[in-house]
Write a structure and sequence with these properties.
The protein is α/β, with parallel strands linked by helices and 158 residues long. It is built from 6 helices and 7 strands, in the order E-H-H-E-E-H-H-E-E-E-H-E-H. The chain has one domain: 3-Layer(aba) Sandwich (Rossmann fold). The longest helix is centred in the last third of the chain and has 19 residues.
């Protein structure tokens, strides 16, 4: 699936992972704008108030990010973007990493099995209950949620 006009808001952790998996250069080559978690007040979130966005996708959302969002903490670029998108009543799609009791996930060079804690699973469930928020649990449901959102936008513009 290819979508035009995408901006990425990168937490420090995601940026590290993208570098580790050698994705940063591919994103640059695709012409995707990237905003880095480098300002104390998360300056880029102001774009949400200028109606520059119609949808927020948080993917992947780590257990740390999900827990902060559920608790209403917005002290990083990603958690601040989540809070501001919610305050602007934008549709939000969250792909939480910890939604199943056992997760087999890729790591550099191998697959690993992780066992999310009860609190991680609970926070993932709770984030899906936020207004205008869709929780997805795998790449297939993420792709479907994005396609549904694109379809909704096309219908409303016609």
């Amino acid at each position: 699936m290819e979508i035009k006009g995408v901006d990425l808001f990168l937490s420090r952790a995601v940026e590290e992972v993208l570098i580790m998996y050698k994705y940063i250069e591919r994103l640059r080559e695709a012409g995707i704008r990237m905003f880095h978690d480098s300002t104390a007040s998360a300056v880029p979130v102001g774009q949400f108030y200028e109606n520059n966005y119609h949808t927020l996708i948080v993917a992947p959302a780590t257990s740390n990010t999900v827990a902060k969002c559920v608790a209403g903490i917005s002290d990083t670029l990603v958690t601040n973007v989540f809070a501001q998108a919610g305050k602007c009543q934008l549709p939000i799609i969250v792909y939480a990493c910890d939604t199943e009791p056992v997760v087999i996930t890729p790591a550099p060079g191998k697959m690993v099995t992780v066992y999310p804690r009860k609190i991680d699973l609970e926070c993932s469930r709770k984030i899906g209950e936020f207004e205008n928020t869709t929780l997805v649990t795998n790449m297939k449901t993420l792709q479907q949620a994005v396609l549904n959102r694109i379809e909704c936008l096309q219908e409303s513009s016609s």
